[in-house]
Amino acid sequence: MPKQQANWSPYDNNGGSCVAVAGADYCVIAADTRMSTGYIILTRDYSKICKLADKCVMASSGFQADVKALQKHLAARHLIYQHQHSKQMSCPAMAQLLSNTLYYKRFFPYYSFNVLGGLDNEGKGCVFTYDAVGSYEKVGYSSQGSGSTLIMPFLDNQLKSPSPLLLPVQDAVTPLAEAEAVDLVKTVFASASERDIYTGDKLEIVVINADGIRREYMDLRKD
Amino acid sequence: MAVEQANLCTPQDAAVVRTLRVFRDPHVDRELEPATVLIIITKHVMSSPSLNFQTQISGLILSLSFSGQRNMSNSVIEVPPKGGFSFDLCKRNEMLAKKGVNPPSFRKTGTTIVGLVFQDGVILGADTRATEGPIVCDKNCEKIHYMAPNIYCCGAGTAADTEAVTDMVSSQLQLHRYHTGRESRVVTALTLLKRHLFNYQGHVSAALVLGGVDVTGPHLHTIYPHGSTDTLPFATMGSGSLAAMAVFESKYKEGLTRNEGIELVTEAICSGIFNDLGSGSNVDVCVITKGGKEYLRNHLQPNPRTYTNSKGYSFPKKTEVLLTKIIPLKEKVEIIEGGDAMEE
Asked: Which family does it belong to (chain A) (predicted)?
């Protein structure tokens, strides 16, 4: 009998894609609402976006059970912070907290691919992108999930700032207007759902700006 | 070649070596192939009456060494068995996989394919999505293949396999038609396909729904990659087969009319398209009756693109020029006037 190996995995991939784009005074975070396993659709109506603080929203794809556990953990830590400091956590502070939380489980990771979006203390848009164990970077835009390989090159083409070798150094944040950024995100998801089987059903878009948080929905391909 | 250096234990071994020397062409400086050596040695072994000789020959094989890159393994090499299947390449593939060299992935069609028998003939249906892992590589491929004017075949599994096997059997059927002077029968196509697939022991990954109308009436069959077949009034195959079969089991009845049949097939394929991630895009339908066939390509298109930006996007060149440096490759040659030498 050939050597047998363990074939139970504690992880599963529920698919989906998330995108975040930062602007001068707004931030757009979007994710599709399809949750699947293998070739089966579990539900067409699952939100991958979670509000962590007043000006801070996280979108996560990957294994949704781990994502849910991570969200609960962060919500609890945020509550403690509010009790201790009498204020909400800022987006950069939440970014650091998320990184530390993920690295804490370095040897049994949260199978969760996150993008964090929000407004920093000056009201400028900021996006942080993570890997599964907490390595993070402040960027102008990012995508994660099964469709990220299809989405990222397009965002790079449309939004990428010129080379950092050129002076004067330019900011990663896009000069696009809010409506244009939302338009871009819609196009990007419509294209991704054409070619990625795990992306589709409905698109949930969350926009954070000085007025607060706004949510909107768009239909995607259901096949 | 180091045959000469072999351990000559007995006079019989010397005889073998002499034979080998004879086989070496003196005019061509070329190494003898290991296989040739084996055949020569084996012939000697077969013709020798004594058992002792055989063991000594094994010793001879062990001590043979070949120059260059070829290395004899240390075990006794067997002559390949005559006839039957040879799974040597399977062992090689396993060995390679262990070393981390994986075979290239195949383009599978994911797929929902269905067929049903109605009062005047058969109706076949298929989706149009072809996938490579989690990516859709063709949004509108054709899965209903032509076999004969009165026979069509839907294919699920590896796209190359379904195309190749249906093309091949279609050609064979045409030759058969010329030979017999008669219309092809569905059972003929069935037998040709199942014999081919069984021969390849399931490695040709083609799951087919074969349907047609011939002199004996309407027929519908399913063929599995290993070569087994079923004859059914309604059938589904592919990753979306369960979703489609659920529809068929609820709504199928005997003696459906043409429009009812097309509607049921479309509903079953749509069930596969929307509930199975391996199937998608459009519905293809093919209706075959005694009178003829009707291929309804893209009969239904329930998945249009959801959002197109009215302004569109431009893709300006984004690679910035940081430095420009021109180095001429050749010095410019001066052309001297008055070169009339050629005219003389």
From this structure: Belongs to the peptidase T1B family.
Token pair in block for residue A169? 């150094």
Cα(B299)–Cα(B125) distance, integer angstroms? 10
Look up residue B140 and give its two tokens.
């509108």
Q: Which chain B residue lies closest to A156 (C-alpha atoms)?
A: B318
Q: What is chain A's Cα-based Rg? A: 18
Q: What share of chain A is helix, strand, coil (3-state, %, to 5)?
A: 30, 35, 35
What span, in angstroms and rounded, lies between the C-alpha atoms of B113 and A90?
53
Which two tokens mark B252?
């199928």
CA distance A168 to A131: 30
Segment A103-108 long-range contacts (CB within 8 Å, at least 24 positions apart): A103/A133, A103/A134, A105/A133, A106/A133, A106/A134
Q: Which runs of E-coded beta strand occur in B84-192?
A: 113-118, 121-126, 130-132, 135-138, 144-148, 151-157
Q: Tell me the sheet residues that pair with A126.
A: A118
List, for residues B57-116, the tens digit of each pLDDT value: 444 444 444 443 344 444 556 666 566 667 778 888 888 888 887 766 655 558 999 999
CB contact under 8 A, A39 and B110: yes
Is there a contact between B275 and B268 (Cβ–Cβ < 8 Å)? no
Q: How many residues does chain B have?
A: 344
Closest residue of chain A to B240, computed from CA coordinates: A39
B305 touches chain A (CB under 8 A): yes
Low-confidence ranges of chain B (pLDDT < 50): 1-9, 28-29, 49-74
Amino acid at B9: C
Query: How many CA atoms within 13 Å lie on the side-chain side of A2?
Result: 4
Cβ count near B108 (within 10 Å): 22
Q: Are A37 and A133 in contact (CB under 8 A)?
A: no
Cα distances from A212 to residues A94, A207, A208, B82, B142, in angstroms, run 18, 8, 6, 79, 50
pTM: 0.73
Q: Which residue has the tokens 């599709």?
A: A32
Measured CA to CA, the distance from residue A158 to residue B311 in angstroms comes to 14
Q: A28-67: per-residue pLDDT in tens?
A: 999 999 999 999 999 999 999 999 999 999 999 999 999 9
- In tens, the pLDDT along B234-260 reads 999 999 999 999 999 999 999 999 999
- The per-residue pLDDT for A170 is 67
CA B165 → CA A34, B137, B205, B243, B339, distances in Å? 36, 21, 10, 26, 69
Residue type, B66: F
Residues 236-255 of B with CB under 8 A from A: 239
Instruction: Evaluate whether B237 touches B222 at the Cβ level (below 8 Å).
Output: yes
B111 is catalytic: yes
Choose, from B111, B166, B188, B229, the residue flagged as catalytic: B111
Report the SS3 class of residue B341.
helix
- B51 close to B21: Cβ distance less than 8 angstroms: no
